[in-house]
């Protein structure tokens, strides 16, 4: 009976996750379509709310479909309390759970990740701080950008 459940549940879960991923891509595409100051200015208004609510909800739903039930104990720090949110060890796809639970903050990511199909569009909608592995000044530029966003008095979302 367990094998039969796996044979039925695995394809259903895969189809649901694929659908949710494509829906997240569509939401990210709409939110960033004709974005003024693409990547240089923070998303505002409906664009920012769309990313924070729709993308966060879709990510939570995808993890639920995968079989993860996440319960938060305590209160997530708000943007004025903590403009920079540190997550460690930052080594797996579970980092997305933290993003979903904290309202889809900006993240620090490799520049190459922005060009991957589907995921790159979703990642770009989070307005990441892109790190270039070829640029010798990238580390210094990344710290400067994180500092600039943290001191923006709420114009930019939290940075994780």
Topology:
Blueprint: H1 2-32, H2 45-66, H3 95-101, E1 108-110, H4 119-125, E2 129-131, H5 138-150
Parallel strand pairs: 1-2
Helix pairs in contact: 1-2, 1-4, 2-3
The gist of it:
By secondary structure, the chain is mainly alpha-helical.
Question: What's the number of helices?
Answer: 5
Radius of gyration: 17 Å
Main-sheet strand order equals: 1-2
**Secondary-structure element series:** HHHEHEH
**Mean pLDDT figure:** 86
Percentage of residues in helical conformation: 40-55%
Can you summarize the main beta sheet?
2 strands, parallel
**How many distinct domains?**
1
Number of strand elements: 2
- The dominant shape is globular
Q: Output the structural class.
A: mainly alpha
- Low-confidence segments, given as residue ranges, are none
Share of residues in strands: under 5%
Our measurement of the CA-to-CA distance between the termini, rounded to an integer number of angstroms, reads 43 Å
């Amino acid at each position: 009976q367990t094998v039969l459940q796996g044979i039925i549940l695995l394809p259903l879960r895969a189809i649901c996750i694929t659908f949710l991923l494509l829906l997240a891509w569509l939401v990210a595409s709409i939110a960033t379509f004709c974005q003024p100051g693409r990547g240089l200015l923070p998303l505002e208004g409906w664009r920012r709310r769309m990313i924070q609510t729709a993308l966060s909800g879709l990510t939570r739903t995808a993890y639920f479909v995968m079989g993860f039930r996440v319960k938060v104990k305590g209160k997530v720090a708000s943007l004025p309390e903590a403009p920079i949110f540190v997550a460690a060890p930052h080594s797996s796809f579970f980092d997305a759970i933290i993003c979903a639970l904290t309202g889809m903050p900006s993240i620090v990511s490799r520049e190459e990740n922005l060009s991957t199909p589907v995921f790159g569009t979703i990642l770009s909608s989070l307005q990441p701080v892109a790190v270039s592995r070829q640029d010798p000044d990238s580390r210094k530029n990344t710290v400067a950008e994180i500092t600039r966003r943290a001191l923006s008095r709420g114009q930019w979302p939290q940075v994780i």
